[in-house]
Amino acid sequence: MTSPKLAVVGHPNKGKSSIVSTLVRQDAVAVSELSGTTTQSQSFSMMVDGKELYQLVDTPGFQRPRQVLEILQAQTQDASQRRQTVQAFLHQYAPDGNHKFKDEAELLEPIVNGAGIVYVVDGSVPYSPEYEAEMTILQWTGQPRMALINPIGGEHYVEQWQAALSQFFSVVRVFNPMTADGDKQRQILSAFAELHEPWRTSLEQAQQLLAFHLNDLQRQGGQMIAEALQQMAQYQSKLPIVSEHVDSAAKYGLRHQYEAGIRSQEKQMQQHVCELYSHHQLQLENETLEVDYPDLFDRKSWYLFGLDRTKLVGLAASAGAAAGVAIDVGVGGSSLMAGAVAGGVLSGAATLYATLKPERLKLKGMPLGGQQLVAGPIKDISFLFVLFGRAVELLAQVSRKTHADRRVVVVSGLDFSERFNQLSKVDQVKLTRLLQRLHKGLSFEETERLKRYIIDLVAFDKPD
Amino acid sequence: MQTSVSESLSFFYRFGASRALFTWLQFRVFLSDSGWQSRLPEDCRQPGLTVRDTLQNWSDHSAEAELHSLIWVILNIIALLAGSGAMIGALSYSGHEPVNLWLIFGLFAVLPLLLTLFAALGSLLQRSYRSAHSGRVGLVVKVLRLPEQWLPYSRLMVSWSLWQSQSLALLFNVGALAGFFLVALFRDISFGWSSTLIEDTATMVSFFKLFTAPWNMLVSLPADETISATRFFQNQGISVASAGRVWWPTVVMAVLFYGVLPRLLLQQWLAARFRKALSNDISNSGEVERFLNGCQRVTTEAAAAVNEAVAEEQGTKTISVGSKDYCLIGWQNALQNKAVVYQLGLNSWQQDVQWVEETAATVQQPIVIVVDARQTPTGELADCIELMQAQGHSVSVGLLPEVNGDTNSGALRSWQYFVHQHTLEMLKVTELQHD
């Protein structure tokens, strides 16, 4: 079964593209404050799980409705011929032809081919008879149609519009594509379903799928942030050092390297969250993330394969024990596992001694260990709260932003404390403990809890 | 379950769990690059594709990282051979004495059981999200020659390596069992037990009863007399040589029940845990959703090109409504019922054309079409202006600001764009004078 298709039509610059963008959840729909930027009809599909729920056609605005109406009226004898007259008009003035009714042809073609009509008007400007020609033409097509009042600059004339539009359209709704949340979008789908009986089932299913989809996005966004926070909290920058004295320039350089690394990880997380919500072109403005914390630096030894000393000794002891087992087997077990024990102890002890001064460890001149200056992970809880707060605020903003809203998103964790205070005291303590453990890595269960906190915090309304 | 989740799971798991991990990590690495959308194969953007087909198209164009099969085969063979070798060695070293049951039970039943329990405990305590710099994962990546870009996803690698290490240990135990049968097939093996401290046979009978309890429904323990008869002393052998043969089913069951089965259970549990972690990652990480969003993204090039057009800022001359220097004509609602000679756009098109051709032709002053800043320019306005220009009139557009005196920047830019397109002058209309 083909999915419902609706052409979004109206006067130029009344927010048709914005409505399409919000309802198909794609920011690829070009939205411009310049009038007449949409010159060709373009179809956009609302996809969930690879399934097309419905199609919306973004169309150019009416440019010469009175002239078109006069042409149509001149060719029609009675009401029964109106639809055929519109078709004949399109035959005469094809969308790809070179004539002055190109915009009208572009917007009428999908309607004549079966698309429903969504007529868009601006609720902030008064109704005037000039729109009647447009509405009459749409009426002549005989297609199911509804009107959306887009309060671009306010709702001053909404009632006036409702009175006028209800004479031409069976369904009239107010819809602001810049602020419409998921519920509002589903209400519009419900209105679409009222238009045409054959669409009802698929559009009701679309409403359900959209609700599930939005829940999934929130869950996945929470998971994405929970994962990214752990990676950021465990992030380290390292600098090999050769002498006992570490100069401030080295520390300065390493701090910058660490700072750049953390910021890059945060930026990547932000990009992923935006892409998850199909905000591919969203512009973010990050307030600077400071990493100047007292516990930033540590001096550590490093060994082959990045193992620490304990692990290296453990590994060597295991290898020694394994070799000893081979001897035990060779002597038929009469050694009573003494080979394994001796192999383990000897190998472990030798490694313990060899790693006392790691900088001396070399294999064919290649160092196997040494000293290094390590920046991070920062265990300071205030830093972890800053990271967490910024991530939650980003998710809250991106998840609520409609695809028509192209304004820059400012990322800062400044307001996070107000959101955090909406949690119960017990949950505040539990969340703090989780954050304190971030740098060690969380178990699946802990990660799941962190994800739930993120989702709960995002769901809280931001206090004014 | 959502369609996209079930389809993506079936795609990633199509060649088993290990391949699923490698394909998934390769997929995540692909998506971690900020410019991944530009590297997306065109096949993935085809409309009407299912989730699975889209992922398949991506997979067809990406160099899929595989576990270095030779290394993996060698590791498996080593585990199998080590198990067989250990068992053959243990069974072969007997000299003139029977094979000591303590040795076989110790090496292939008790020790594997202890190691299995130790591994199970370690697995339980294992934290899922380990540092990307985790040494063990780094080692696994190096030894198996896997891509280093996978290191940030070490939590899955840890889970997978725990599962695989138990698979190798299981192979060791299976190898031991195979080694036993190999030797038993070609040699007569006599088992016995010996002890310096245990004098009482009854103690040994009790011990064996307890030890063989898990399988005594399947294979019964040798009789008390046989247990007693298979005790041997140094350099003496057992009293009834044939009695030693009755132990072999008990030895096999001991290896099976204490060596193989617990290891198999642990391996299966870790496999299930790994699959759960991987499936959870595929379902909840949002990566598939991100990928599909990128594939389904449509570009609006034609419109974007116009959008780029910069409306030129014009020096706006101001005129008052009552000015006698200009002939003011209203467009649609602008200055309705006020000082304009005619209101275009409100009647039929023919009436407007007729007025322009008959009345406007007599106008002497330059014409200013007064428009409301809240309106948007249309083709019909351009047509009216063209008609007047054809009569030799100088026509400008007079912008009437909104009630509060401001003009919405979008509307202003639209009008600027319009006058720029039609090579007109734009004026600002002020000082409203009512009739």
Automatic annotation (TrEMBL), chain A:
GO cellular component, one term: cytoplasm
Cytoplasm as UniProt keyword: yes
Single GO MF annotation: GTP binding
Domain G: 6-91
Organism, as annotated: Reinekea marinisedimentorum
Keyword hit for Cytoplasm: yes
SUPFAM superfamilies per the UniProt record, alphabetical: P-loop containing nucleoside triphosphate hydrolases
PANTHER family, sorted: TRNA MODIFICATION GTPASE GTPBP3, TRNA MODIFICATION GTPASE GTPBP3, MITOCHONDRIAL
Name listed for the protein in its UniProt record: Small GTP-binding protein
Cross-referenced Gene3D superfamilies: P-loop containing nucleotide triphosphate hydrolases
Source lineage: Bacteria, Pseudomonadati, Pseudomonadota, Gammaproteobacteria, Oceanospirillales
Keywords: Cytoplasm
A GO BP annotation: tRNA methylation
InterPro entries associated with the record: DUF3482, GTP-bd, P-loop_NTPase
From TrEMBL, chain B:
Pfam families per the UniProt record, alphabetical: DUF2868
Ranges that cross the membrane: 70-93, 99-121, 167-186, 246-266
Source species, domain of life: Bacteria
InterPro entries given in the database record: DUF2868
Annotated keywords: Membrane, Transmembrane, Transmembrane helix
Name the record gives this protein: Uncharacterized protein DUF2868
